[in-house]
Design brief:
- The structure is a single chain.
- With about 425 residues, the protein is mainly beta.
- Helices cover about 10% and strands about 50% of the residues.
- The protein contains 3 helices and 22 strands.
- The longest helix has 28 residues.
- The protein is globular.
- The N terminus is likely disordered.
């Protein structure tokens, strides 16, 4: 009886403690499932490059004056105390109707998230944004412009890539370092795959929301990327004989036979590539007007273009130096209006040249865009923007065959509604 009473007293003392521990754990570590999303519907009012014709190589329409679903994102997140996961689906009609996974990751963080959503130390694996620069880190739902800059889309097409990364925030410092496949989801070759066993190392070290004075703060960072690209091989060819019917009489004549020498094959090879970037942004609270943001970003890269002019120094016989710069400003006005201007310039080959009149002269293959924006946010979850893009490039040719500006200006309207 004495032993039974002792056991009963111990249970009476332990049970409240167990109950308190269970209840406190439920409060602290209760998992949270969140479903989020947004839709961006777009109308291209006028595009100077549009033609009522088809592309001979792909069969796709060359008309761009149209309505389209630019982005429809469905996001599901599971957030625990130290672990979380995220999957994001994208539906659009940019190149026909398609639905795809654009982001999917799992992460473990320690010890707790800060108000900005960062852990002091975290590890992630999956499909996530490439940690380079500021433009790539900004979500499409928070970026006022419909598209990222020319240089960001050329060097990191599609933004997202597969890999593993370590990241975190310590005070004002944010760090990210990732080991990635090096084939973003919208690369011109092998999107989402990796033809080379070598991996790309990409990282960024930055400052977040550093107050300078009561009405001014800054964000900034430096980024670096280093890895290996892939140049596909060329099969060997045999000697051949070609007939060219010079007099068009349909009769094979000895003088019309042209011998073609066989060429040796070339095996697939890898090449080094890399990039360095720096970004800076100032946030201002303009009295009686509203918040403003002034930003700038520069890129220096080598053999990293994977979309605009895909770099292949093996077949070209030399490295390609890529350069890019982005500057801009946005200003919110009374009545929930916003205005903005952005200029970006990208040169995919700073050493390009061509032969004219028996002379080799430099060739300008750069593209630039001055984008003006006017927007209105009628409610917390809606934004309507009108955008004019003055696009400059030298990809056209005049009647004499000399490089000329290709007419490519564009006017578009975008409506975004989010949850």
């Amino acid at each position: 009886m004495a032993r039974s009473r002792l056991c009963l007293d111990l249970l009476r003392g332990i049970c409240p403690l167990v109950a308190i521990c269970i209840s406190s754990r439920a409060v602290v570590a209760a998992p949270e499932a969140v479903v989020d999303g947004y839709v961006q519907a777009m109308a291209v009012v006028h595009d100077q490059s549009s033609l009522n014709e088809l592309d001979e190589s792909t069969g796709r329409p060359l008309n761009e004056d149209r309505f389209l679903l630019r982005r429809a994102r469905l996001i599901a997140m599971f957030n625990g105390q130290h672990a979380h996961s995220r999957i994001e689906l994208d539906a659009n009609t940019v190149r026909g109707s398609q639905v795809r996974i654009i982001s999917a990751l799992v992460g473990i963080g320690w010890p707790e998230r800060n108000p900005a959503g960062w852990y002091p130390a975290e590890a992630q694996v999956g499909l996530f944004r490439t940690p380079f620069g500021a433009d790539l880190q900004l979500s499409s739902r928070r970026r006022l412009w419909a598209e990222r800059s020319h240089v960001a889309r050329a060097l990191f097409p599609g933004t997202y890539d597969l890999g593993v990364q370590a990241l975190g925030q310590l005070g004002r410092f944010r760090y990210q370092i990732a080991l990635m496949n090096g084939a973003p989801i919208e690369a011109s070759a092998f999107p989402g795959l990796d033809p080379d066993r070598g991996k790309d190392v990409v990282g960024r070290l930055g400052l977040a929301d550093v107050p300078l004075v009561s009405w001014l703060s800054l964000d900034g960072g430096v980024s670096i990327a280093e890895g290996r690209g892939f140049s596909p091989g060329v099969p060997a060819t045999k000697d051949d004989l070609q007939w060219r019917d010079a007099n068009e009489n349909g009769v094979v004549e000895l003088a019309e036979l042209v011998p073609l020498a066989g060429q040796p094959g070339r095996p697939s090879q890898s090449f080094s590539r890399g990039a360095l970037g720096a970004d800076l942004a100032f946030r201002l609270n303009v009295p009686r007007i509203g918040p403003a943001r002034v930003f700038a970003e520069v890129f220096w890269a080598r053999n990293l273009d994977r979309a605009f002019l895909p770099a292949d120094p093996i077949s070209l016989g030399r490295d390609l130096r890529e350069r890019g710069v982005v500057v801009g400003v946005t200003q919110w006005l009374p009545g929930a209006f916003v205005v903005g201007a952005r200029y970006d310039h990208y040169d995919p080959d700073a050493d390009a040249s061509e032969q004219r009149a028996r002379q080799v002269v430099p060739r300008d293959r750069s593209v630039a865009s001055l984008s003006l924006l006017l927007g209105w946010a009628p409610s917390r979850n809606a934004l309507l923007t009108a955008q004019y893009d003055r696009n400059d490039n030298h990809l056209g040719r005049d009647a004499a065959g000399n490089p000329a500006r290709l007419a490519d200006d564009r006017i578009s309207v975008l409506l975004q509604v989010e949850r």
